[in-house]
Automatic annotation (TrEMBL), chains A, B:
Pfam families reported in the protein's UniProt record: adh_short (PF00106)
One GO MF term: sepiapterin reductase (NADP+) activity
Top-level lineage group: Eukaryota
Organism classification: Eukaryota, Metazoa, Spiralia, Lophotrochozoa, Mollusca
Family, as annotated: Belongs to the sepiapterin reductase family.
Keyword NADP among UniProt keywords: yes
Main location: cytoplasm
Organism whose genome encodes this protein: Lottia gigantea (Giant owl limpet)
Subcellular location: Cytoplasm
An example Gene Ontology CC term for this record: cytoplasm
Name this polypeptide is given: Sepiapterin reductase
Keyword annotations: Cytoplasm, NADP, Oxidoreductase
Length: 266, 266
């Protein structure tokens, strides 16, 4: 049975641009009547642009999907920012979780950061900050989500990457994070079989991150590989990968915790 | 050709106990004449005990292996602690790297920490500290090692775990780290084929960490599994796994970057 038919509260991190924006649009189009989208990101002005775009969709108006935006920095080291996040959103927007059937958490926020060779990763504070955003913050937010939505059925998605399963030169930190996150969500899947858990690798999508890949990766072969994909117009759009992702949730046949790539059969 | 025949500087982190101590003993027995062991850990008194034990070995006396101990906290956030580590050791001990043929870095230091279910990992500062020690500090130390030993041939070993390849309930953080580290060293291997890189999973070894596993893992089945191994005397000793590890270095037939478990054929 589709995971999109239930009246849901759907949380998307990094929702101010790129794939996060694409996800917000797709969920607004596909999710059940009277659902709520909670869009999180660091930049409120960017979130406002996405919110306006989403609310203007005819499907969104028709299904009466509510779109809430909230500033959230996953790299914060302040536990209050995490612990009070959902309760403050619920209070400010007069939402009662018990009125919903399902909670969906999409861990999309992430950074690429230092695309350097392993031998050049001696910047301890930058490396620490990278793991704070991409691992510590994400794991903490996930725990808070599971607690706040404990009484609903739940779907948890990790926006994964080819980098989770393939070592890529000069992406030491990124691959480490993506591999670790895949493992983390495999564990969530076996710890609680009632939660539907998915590691989705969106493929090479035309985003701001993809610009960094093409210009800053310390390995020039990697730069050239992605420049070529770009030149030959083989990079995906956010819409393409997000549509495919919604089909996977619609079909709902994946094994919980599995890694599915855009290019995989599913 | 064996990796143990060259006159080496061999650095072992977490060398004050458990597998780290076992490695110090084995290297002192097997490494080439006039090599130097640098043993790092947080506790100097514990390091002194290991140093005394190692220096008392007849093989160590015979091969004139020097054993240096140095306090080092891999969880430090102070970049100076990392950047000055090797240069201060070299200076204090009148060592000139150019007089050696090989540098060996054994990333053995590590913590198990919060053995909780994913839903209970909401302690942001504890989680952050865990990644600081096990990822950030290790990656930074590794970069400093590669730079300081740039002119020698190099061997880099990650003390891995079954947890790097198998999701284990209530070990969310540990598995995330171990999986990420394996990936990191696979990348090092492809970035620099001149470095011999190994991810070695030592099997279930009777250490302080194994006591935590048996008493604190939030999943009681996991506790019981390891209690049973302990009761049936199926846990390995540090000596057993370290001997096997030395055989792998001696044989030196592994593909660089590969994950080898104690129980694997190699």
């Amino acid at each position: 049975m589709s995971l999109l038919n239930k009246k849901s509260v759907c949380v998307i991190t990094g929702a101010s641009r790129g794939i996060g924006e694409g996800l917000a649009i797709q969920f607004a189009k596909c999710i059940a009547q009277d659902s709520v989208l909670i869009l999180l990101a660091r930049s409120v002005p960017d979130l406002e642009v996405v919110q306006t775009k989403v609310l203007a969709l005819p499907e969104c108006k028709k299904s009466n999907v509510k779109v809430i935006i909230k500033r959230f920095d996953q790299g914060s080291t302040n536990k209050e920012d995490f612990e009070s996040l959902f309760s403050s959103i619920f209070k400010e927007n007069n939402i009662f979780v018990s009125e919903f059937q399902q909670g969906i958490m999409i861990h999309n926020a992430g950074t690429l950061d230092e695309t350097k060779f392993c031998k050049n990763l001696h910047y301890i504070s930058k490396t620490g900050q990278f793991f704070q955003i991409n691992l510590t913050g994400m794991i903490t937010l996930n725990a808070i989500f599971l607690q706040e939505f404990s009484k609903l059925s739940k779907v948890v998605v990790n926006m994964s990457s080819l980098a989770a399963v393939m070592p890529i030169k000069s992406w030491g930190l990124y691959c480490t994070v993506k591999s670790g996150r895949d493992m983390f969500f495999k564990i969530l899947a076996i710890e609680d079989p009632s939660i539907r858990v998915l590691n989705y690798a969106p493929g090479p999508v035309k985003t701001d991150m993809m610009n960094i890949v093409q210009t800053q990766s310390e390995d020039t072969e990697i730069q050239e590989t992605y420049q070529k994909l770009n030149k030959e117009e083989k990079l995906l759009t956010a819409e393409m990968t997000c549509s495919k992702f919604m089909e996977i949730l619609e079909l709902n046949k994946f094994e919980s915790g599995v890694h599915i790539d855009y290019y995989d059969e599913y």
